[in-house]
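Long-time lurker, first post. I've been practising inverse folding by hand and with some scripts of my own, and I keep getting stuck on stretches where the structure tokens seem ambiguous. Below is the full token string for one chain I'm working on. Before anyone asks, I'm not after the true native sequence, just a reasonable design that respects the backbone. If someone could post their per-position residues I'd love to compare against what I wrote down in my notebook.
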């Protein structure tokens, strides 16, 4: 026989269970009724007030996260009510196919597809950061051993030039002995060439603010060179790709780059017999070397795309520069009255590695020659593939 106390407690538990179930059912019904009585709020349409930013910056402001979210929810509900006449709670989606790739979902007014290398402050009004905007860019690929030569070269460029140094020996702080170095842009990656740097740090959209881009070696004597005068001659003669004339007694490979003493500029030359199949083609015309090249903005946009990621020495590029301007024999030339001396310092060659009994520079030179052949093959194959895709019989190779 059950004890009376146990029966009483069982009945009490049963009544409590019924009350809980009844309360839950009533709660669900009331929740449903309240829910259909208010407009739906889409969390993706919350317009957070500017006070949230202040809260993030100042945790001691006394504004709680809950207060800010309540404000946002209220704003969203008000926005929904104000737009109820449209019979739709969907905000029109933005898609602009003419925007840069990847930015199609942004309104055009906020898209910034180009940038610059201008140095800015960390304080003050952004609109007051720049006291000047250099129109030209000069880059040198350097090792600290050539500091005196680079110092002399940089002094030939006015404040109208942004100075950029690519350091292949990983020594940067030592350059602070020069006042101009504190305003220069320094990029350091060990044992890399200037074309490796150029491909990765001089994208056309990064240097788009500059009218001309100088991509120079570190072993150039500039006693007879003035950068502003050079720019004036380049503009005067319509040169899109150019270089200063070379002093002929040292470091001369091609007749085209040899300085002619009584001219401002030359665009054609005579080479050794059999070297030029056409007087308008390299190396007799439409040709400069890659040691001290100067590009216009438009020419560089084309040339940058032709630089191969894995071919770091740039050999063969000089013969292909003509692909980027038309007519090339008129827009590529050598500025004679602003000339330089190639000092032929094998500094980068010494960054190589001795292998199989060969000196470091020998391995570097072998790589250069190999890259030249690879580049020529790629360019020839690319042109052939293009013509075939267009249903055109490929002409005789135009790659020298």
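-- Answer (accepted) --
I ran through it position by position. Result:
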């Amino acid at each position: 026989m059950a004890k009376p106390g146990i029966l009483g407690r069982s009945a009490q538990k049963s009544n409590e269970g019924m009350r809980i179930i009844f309360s839950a059912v009533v709660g669900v019904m009331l929740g449903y009724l309240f829910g259909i009585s208010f407009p739906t709020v889409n969390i993706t349409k919350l317009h957070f007030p500017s006070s949230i930013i202040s809260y993030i910056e100042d945790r001691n402001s006394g504004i709680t996260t809950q207060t800010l979210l309540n404000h946002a929810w209220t704003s969203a509900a008000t926005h929904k009510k104000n737009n109820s006449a449209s019979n739709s709670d969907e905000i029109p989606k933005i898609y602009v196919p003419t925007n840069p790739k990847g930015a199609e979902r942004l309104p055009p007014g906020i898209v910034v597809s180009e940038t610059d290398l201008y140095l800015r402050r960390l304080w003050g009004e952004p609109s007051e950061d720049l006291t000047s905007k250099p129109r030209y860019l000069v880059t040198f690929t350097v090792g600290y051993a050539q500091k005196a030569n680079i110092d002399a070269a940089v002094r030939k460029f006015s404040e109208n030039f942004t100075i950029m140094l690519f350091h292949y020996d990983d020594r940067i702080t030592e350059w602070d002995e020069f006042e101009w170095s504190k305003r220069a842009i320094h990029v350091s990656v060990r044992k890399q060439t200037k074309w490796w740097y150029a491909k990765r740090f001089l994208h056309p959209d990064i240097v788009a603010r500059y009218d001309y881009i100088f991509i120079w070696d570190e072993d150039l004597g500039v006693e007879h060179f003035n950068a502003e005068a050079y720019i004036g001659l380049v503009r005067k003669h319509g040169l899109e790709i150019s270089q200063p004339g070379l002093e002929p007694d040292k470091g001369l490979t091609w007749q085209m780059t040899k300085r002619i003493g009584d001219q401002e500029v030359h665009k054609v030359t005579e080479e050794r017999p059999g070297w030029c199949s056409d007087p308008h083609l390299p190396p007799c015309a439409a040709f400069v070397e890659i040691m001290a090249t100067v590009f216009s903005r438009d020419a560089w946009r084309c040339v940058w795309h032709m630089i191969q990621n894995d071919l770091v020495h740039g050999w063969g590029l000089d013969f292909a520069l003509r692909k980027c301007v038309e007519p090339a024999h008129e827009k590529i030339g050598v500025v004679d009255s602003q000339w330089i001396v190639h000092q032929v310092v094998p500094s980068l060659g010494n960054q190589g590695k001795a292998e199989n009994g060969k000196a470091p520079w020998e391995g570097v030179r072998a790589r250069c020659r190999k890259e030249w052949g690879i580049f020529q093959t790629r360019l020839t194959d690319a042109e052939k593939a293009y013509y075939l895709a267009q249903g055109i019989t490929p002409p005789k190779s135009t790659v020298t």
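A couple of notes from the structure itself: The first strand starts at residue 136 and ends at 142. DSSP finds ten helices and nine strands in the chain. Happy to go over any region you disagree with.
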